Amino acid sequence: MANEHRLTDGVSVEAIKTFFADLQSEFPDTYTEMTTEDACKQLVVPRTRQDNCAYVEQLHKQSPEHVDKATVFVSHAWRYKIADVLNVLLEFADEQARKDDSKPVFFWFDLFMNNQNANVTANLPQEWWSTTFKESIANIGHVLLVLMPWRDPVPLTRAWCLWEIFCGISNEGTEVTIQLPKSEELELVLAIAGDFKAVTDTLVRVQAERADAFNPHDKHMIFTAIESWAGGFSAVNQAVKDQLRAWCLQKAVGAVEAMRARGEDSTDAFAELCGAVGSVLSEFGEHDKAIAYYETALAIRLRTEGEKGGNVAVLYNNLGNAYFSKGDSCKAIHYFEKALAVFVEARGEKHPSTVDTYNNLGNAYSGKGDGDKAIELYQKALTIKVETLGEKHPSTGDTYGNLGNAYFSKGAYDKAIELHEKAKEVFVETLGEKHPSTATTYNNLGNTHYSKGEYDKAITFYEKALAIRIETLGEKHPNTADTYNNLGAAYVDKGEYGKAIHHYEKALAVFVEMLGEKHPSTASTYGNLGIVYTYKGEHDRAIQLCETALAIAVETLGEKHPSTADTYNNLGLVYGSKGDFDKAIQLYEKDLAITAEALGEKHPSVAMTLENIGLLHAKRGDKQQACAYVQQALDVFATTLGANHPNTRKAERNLRRIRGGAVTRQHTSTQHVSESRLQQQNVLAHRNLLLRFISSAVVYQSFAPQRNLLMRFLGAVAHADVDARRPANTGSDNEDKKTGTGHGCPRGCSAPARALYKDACKCPGEPVAGWLRKRGRRRAAFRPCWCKFDDDGHLAYGKSASGTAKRRIPLSSVLSAELAHGGEEMHVAVPGRTFVFRLDAHSDTSLADWCTAINNRINTTT
After folding, report:
1. Which CATH architecture has domain 601-669?
2. Neighbouring C-alpha atoms within 13 Å toward the C-beta of 467
3. Sign of CA pseudo-dihedral 495, 497, 502, 504
4. How far apart are CA 604 and CA 587, in angstroms?
5. For 728-758, how does the pLDDT look when each residue is reduced to its tens digit (9 = 90+)?
6. Does the domain formed by 769-860 have CATH 2.40.240.10?
7. Is 193 left (phi over 0), alpha (psi -120 to 50) or beta?
8. Would you give the distance in Å from CA 174 to the centre of its chain?
9. What's the 3-state SS for 62-81?
10. CATH architecture of 474-574
11. pLDDT digit string (tens) for 779-788?
12. Residue 208 in contact with residue 233, Cβ under 8 Å?
């Protein structure tokens, strides 16, 4: 390495041919079995020993025209057969020569360029490996990786090769080409057609930290260089995997194009290859390209088999899966239903393919937001599986899990838990505790308890799932990373942001290494981290993470994918939290447009975004716009999830809070209110708010008898005000009950007037109870608790609605109860401490109502 030309010079194609001919001449019986190391010891070293020089130096003296500036750096393994390596170099040179802009090829081939009579790397400084070597490859401009055998490529296990590939990939402007021997090319094409999984499996074997080298000194120096590089081993692994991924896709597509060029594009063999290539592309997330290949295969199968052909049904199913993965549930349903019709007629109702398609259809309807239809399909699949396979069969367990997820999406969490518990029992009995399917069920149970607000239970199940996945799948598996993500989410809602970030970062490291930087799961985890930093108040960091997520989502899934919409939603959340409401609304509107187009106007995700936009308009002070958006959200939630779903109830509460009064349930359709009616409602709301303010002042400055008298007076004023405004014969008492006003309160009152009237007329001991979330001491996480007023003058709270409350706040000691943080929290102050409450997903009473009830009872006891 001491001579500078060894870093930049290369040998010509003719020199390679001459060396190959010499090898065959001197070792006619064994040259085909000789490794590169054998060729070095038996041919190169004997020829160069006397001069103690590199082979290229002798070549330069004898035939200087065959030595020039290197154009291609050759990366290979010395365990390869030398004949295979030389053939690959010649095949590569021949391909280059056929290009229009072809230039002479000169190979930097270490067998020739290094002095094989000495250990040339022994005395090189560490800086040479980190900079000079990398700069030399950049100067050459092209790396050729000789890859064989493709099923278990040797270079991916050698430290030298991984470092050479990475140096090429990480140099901007350096081209990297992966080349197989012709015999290997044929085997690869057959594997793609027969078992595409075998192709994709090659991508998960790159682990630079486990790579070896013949020379321990070289290995140490290379590893030190890798560790000093940004990203270390993970960056090297991922860069190589991304390159292999692109190469696999290129080979898959190339195999199809080669058949088309030979005029074989109307044969069943071509259809089979197109279907297999579609599956490879779908596996890599290239769904649009996969769909194109599936459709090409389908056209041939329809012509050769007819509409009822078995391969036709399989392709319909594959198209359904591709559209479902793409986020287009409607088209997925179309193809799954076509597949189902063929399977039922050709193979019968109880055939495994038929049952699998029922499951696929259930998934698609669930993705479309139609939980009832999903449940119907899963139930059909379950009935058949129980009958044909039995209750205790893993496939039956899978369907129990699907049903559980469908009930989960409808908000029927207890039913979902019941089904997931059944699935767990099946898996534990048939597959054992330490099985990935058992882990998946624990994960599902964690998700359900998480949605119930039972974060400690959720974490317990997630940790069980994590332990099994680490043991059975390994630390660096996407499913393991999914569980890290779930744990992160649970800790976010517990308010333990440090733990949340820790788990999200573990998930991110796995996704980046195993799936790549440019992958939807990686994007999603960047978005999750962005949300945590939002809650921590680090908005600039949050924006950076969410924008990284958005860039990846757009590149990998496209602008019109629901996951891309989710990323816009996350960015909207960050800007909204930062106080930039206009920017936040703009981002939410992008989310809304994509989600509505991809999933339909009547989808829970659309409703979520509508509600987010409405809440931002409320913060901007635009009450009319806020009400319009939240009302739309409420209608969609009620239509798709039902009136009792937590999301529906939450939207109702938000609408009630924004309007400043109660809202009747308008679930079937949005009812537009005229301008004059809106103005009248606003006047009433403002008048009642003023009366409420006066009443609160009275409450704090009056004894109980005075308070009751004044409250009744104010209630009468409110009553008289409504009587003066409403037309005669507005309805009977029964109609009052239908509108939900109750308690003899006058119809037409908004929530403040009704609350005022109830304050005036009700018994002070009227019960108020429900779920809230209470913050622990020392600003610990918020946890669900059942709150109520007991008979002894306490605000009591505990873990269960049916059990005895373990904690009590004496109302006689309460100094104040008031809303804080824009109405998101209720602060109940006692001497020396403030209790902080938030609404729970299952709350049926607003924080404002709780505040009123507590203050009423405070003053009743004084």
Report:
1. Alpha Horseshoe (1.25)
2. 8
3. positive
4. 18
5. 333 333 333 333 333 344 444 444 444 444 4
6. no
7. alpha
8. 32
9. HCHHHEEECCEEEECCCCCE
10. Alpha Horseshoe (1.25)
11. 667 888 888 8
12. yes
